[in-house]
Structure formats: structure tokens, C-alpha cells
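Running this now, will post back.
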Amino acid sequence: MNKSYKEFLITAEPLNIEILSSVLWELNIDGISEEINCIKVFTHDQSITESIINDALEQLKKYNLIRNYEVQENVLYEKNWNEEWEKSREVIHITERIVIKPTFKQYEPKQNEIVITLDPKMSFGTGEHPTTKICISFLEKYVKPGMKVLDVGSGTAILSIVAAKLGASKVIAFDIDEWSLANGAENIKLNQVDNIVEVRMCELNNIEEDNFDLIVANIQRNILIELADGIKSRVKSGGIIILSGLLESDEEEIINKYCSLGFNKINFMKISEWIGIAFTKL
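Update: finished.
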């Protein structure tokens, strides 16, 4: 008889994959998959219940990181879980030039294409989320050879890898959790940019370096507001910041905050309800 596992379908407002995953990965789960309007959480641990998932999400609601959520629990019987997972992962063409592929997919790059290889232990940070696509599109536009780049809340380090492949000479990637430290380090080695990208587990105030040519931050609005002064002090005059992880409803507050600190909006991108904004420091 095939072993059973649990699948939890989670919807939330906002559906910020990074924020939701930050608490869900603290539970004994096997994987997270990003769908069009929800995320799926898989676990073989039968002791994990809908109630436990609700408790984890209540913490996010308590801190106003999500407004509301719904959880649906299903029991499934596995065929070959890893095989099913791998079948659902595809090669993603982010732009005409930048391609993201899972380690287990074969892909022959076309001339001038930049191929990023990731081991998709979880779905966010593999290029599937609109905010990741927005950030990568902006990086392709603004990263110039020799730039010094800071990746705030780096997760899988996908944005750092893209910056390095586009010619940045030094990239510092940091996040606050151990998973990002381990997975980010694994991915930069996989893409042979570990001589350019340094992954750290810390907070922004622990970053002593400054004078960055470009800073990218794909995180939630409240955190971008909180980190605004720290970002300003670390980007050089004339430097560029790329902010995403944002919903349409966040646009006015983010623009007002950063323009009040001496930034000038230079670009805007929207995919579905998600947005990204690029600024330059005056």
C-alpha cells in the first residue's frame, strides 16, 4: 500500500510566498509549491494538522504581515513524490536573455542566454513568482560590469546569482534564516559564482559595507519601510535600488517613503497584482 502524505492548500492576503514560507518551514514539512492563487504544503508527518498550520499563520496575522488566510487539508497517497515534484518544475524564461532551470532538467542555451541552475527545494525564489521576475528584469536593465551589489533578504540567492552573471564584481547576499544561508551557498556554488557572491545570515544593520552601486530587496512592504534608512545609508549617490515583494496597494506608501529620503523613482513594473519600483539616490 502506498504511503500517505498530507497536502495543505493555503490562500492568504497578501499571498507573499516568502513571508508565509518563513513560518511554514519551521514545521516538519517536505516541500512548498507555489500555485497561481495559493501555495501547497506537503508533509509526511501525520502529526501536522490544519490547527498547527493555523497557529503558524496566526503569528503572521498578529504582526500584520497577512490580513487573512484559509487552510484546506487533504490526505493523498503518493505515487513517487519526488518524481511528481520534478515533473511540475519547468525551465522558466524570465526575459529573452535570462533562463532559470532546475538541476534535473536538460536545457541547451541559445546564444547569449544566461542560464541559472537551481535546486528547487521550495518554489519561491525559483523565478516563478512575479516579484522575482520583476527584480530579475530590473537587474538585467541596471546591472553593469564591475558593480558592487547588495541583495536584501536573499532567500535562494537567485537575484545575487543573476547579478553576478550579469557582470557584478562583488555581491553580498543576506537573509535572517539558516535555510537561506545553506541553500544560498549551495546555489552560488552550483552556478560557479561563489568567488563573486558572499552569503551571510544577518540583518541589514550587521552589514558594515556601504557605497553599493545597486541594492535589490524583494521583501514585504512593512520591512521595506522599516529598512529604508539602512538602505539609503548603504547605497552610493547616483546608485540604484530595486524594491519588490509589493502589491499595487503598497505603491503610494513606498514611493512617498523613499522619495522623502532623497530617492527618485526611475522605473515601475507590474505583473498581475504585484509591482516593483526602481529608484536612484539623488
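The CA atoms of residues 117 and 190 lie 7 Å apart. More later if anyone needs it.
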